[in-house]
Specification:
This protein is α/β, with parallel strands linked by helices.
């Protein structure tokens, strides 16, 4: 059976109180809609349309050109959104799966059950419904004597008896495509919202004596949509907990999940230990047997951060991309590292800024070493060879290159290249001013205060 998918993502999300399109708000570093797309892709559905409206350009730019975008300039309801997709799907056989773009908890297994029911019974519509303890605010499912779905009655239109029904509409549908277009021709905006409701299609199909069935959700959380930033925070928390649980089950040690934040595009190898108050965002790859934290913030983006095996990072470290830290290296405490490569077994133990740097193997960076990579207008690169030792409080004025086995003396400002095996020292002679403190504390007449 052929199945296509249509994702409704045109709404402005006014209750989010944001200029950003609702579906582009992020959960664990990814747009809300990307979770819905993951579910669709997991079902091997290739033909996917996305209805866009508010912030359409932002949505399309973020998701790329793999999808068919369907504009809905005026948001006139869910029915209108599906009507707009007719030219895209009209000649396509099989069924159309209709989903909302703000339901990131929706599970592949649930949609698969809907598809299996459609294959078995060949209905005009399969809906996803749920029985909930408190149905307030949801459309109620009305069934006929043969247990087919007769109609969906919105909360404001329910009679007192209908309000007692606890089976509700989740907004997930699987329509036989040919029957869907015929029913859509009969809906109208004859309601107080002046919108075209997709729910009206269900009652029209029933009136046409078409088969309308339902699959009940086993998970009362999965159909939850996001309408405001508090709901965004709640669902983000739920997905973060699941994310950390899955990492632990895959062999990662997370000492305190309540203080740990790890986004969706972070991969971590077995037996790596994540200490409390660690934040890992963006595209990051961490190997086996590493130790990260506490109080570490790794900020990956499309350029990424790569951390190899048996690497120690932290405490109190910030790393920004692109960054590559090779096997057995150590990034110690109070380090800011950006756009740099750290070679095998090299150490940046404490109190350093390393930026725009390529560092070789077995390097030891003394405390307080800074690569001065920015002159206020341009940024320059520092190259450090193998087995280099920098003394504490060394300033390396880029562009600069330190050859293999070279050294710098503590307190030096090095502004030129250092050849292999050489020691570079830059210090002025100490000048001692006798009695300075006594004179500083005297008054203007020379008398001690």
């Amino acid at each position: 059976m052929e199945v296509s998918a249509l994702i409704l993502a045109a709404g402005s999300g006014t209750r989010m109180k944001s200029k950003k399109p609702k579906v582009m708000h992020e959960i664990l570093g990814r747009p809300i809609i990307s979770y819905v797309l993951d579910t669709v892709h997991a079902l091997d559905i290739d033909r996917i349309g996305i209805v866009v409206g508010h912030g359409a350009n932002e949505v399309m730019e973020a998701l790329g050109d793999s999808y068919k975008y369907i504009p809905q300039p005026s948001q006139l309801g869910t029915g209108d959104a599906v009507i707009k997709s007719r030219t895209t799907f009209e000649k396509v056989p099989g069924y159309l799966l209709v989903l909302c773009g703000d339901t990131p908890l929706l599970q592949k297994t649930t949609i698969a059950r809907m598809i299996e029911l459609a294959e078995k019974e060949n209905p005009s519509c399969v809906m996803l419904t749920a029985k909930v303890p408190d149905p307030q605010g949801y459309g109620r499912i009305i069934r006929d004597n043969w247990n087919n779905i007769e109609e969906i009655v919105e909360e404001r239109d329910c009679s007192s008896e209908e309000k007692m029904i606890n089976e509700v509409n989740t907004g997930v549908y699987l329509f036989k495509i040919d029957d869907l277009w015929q029913a859509l021709e009969k809906i109208s905006p004859d309601n107080d919202q002046k919108e075209y409701y997709l729910t009206d299609v269900v009652s029209i199909l029933h009136e046409q004596q078409k088969i309308t069935l339902a699959v009940k959700s086993h998970n009362l959380e999965e159909y939850r949509g996001i309408n405001n930033k508090w709901q965004l925070a709640e669902i983000s928390s739920d997905l973060l907990e699941l994310r950390l649980k899955n990492l632990c089950l895959d062999g990662v040690t997370i000492l305190d999940p309540k203080s740990t934040y790890i986004e969706a595009d972070v991969t971590i190898g077995q037996d790596t230990v994540i200490h409390p108050n660690t934040i890992l965002t963006g595209s990051i790859t961490i190997g086996d047997d590493c130790e990260i934290g506490p109080f570490v913030h790794l900020i990956g983006d499309n350029k990424g951060i790569q951390i190899a095996n048996n690497v120690k990072v932290g405490p109190f470290v910030r790393i920004r991309p692109p960054a590559e830290i090779l096997d057995d290296a150590k990034i110690g405490c109070f380090i800011d590292l950006k756009k740099s490569k750290i070679g095998k077994r090299s150490k940046v133990p404490h109190l350093s800024y390393i930026g725009d740097t390529e560092m070789g193997e077995d390097v030891n960076i003394g405390a307080g070493t800074i690569t001065c990579n920015y002159d206020g207008k341009n940024k320059f690169k520092t190259k450090i060879g193998n087995r280099v030792f920098t003394g504490s409080d060394t300033m390396l004025i880029a562009p600069i290159e330190l050859g293999d086995d070279s050294y710098t003396g503590a307190g030096s400002v090095i502004s030129g290249n250092v050849e292999s095996g050489d020691l570079a020292i830059e210090r002025t002679k100490v000048r001692v001013i006798k009695g300075w403190g006594k004179r500083k504390n005297s008054d203007s007449t020379g008398k001690e205060s």
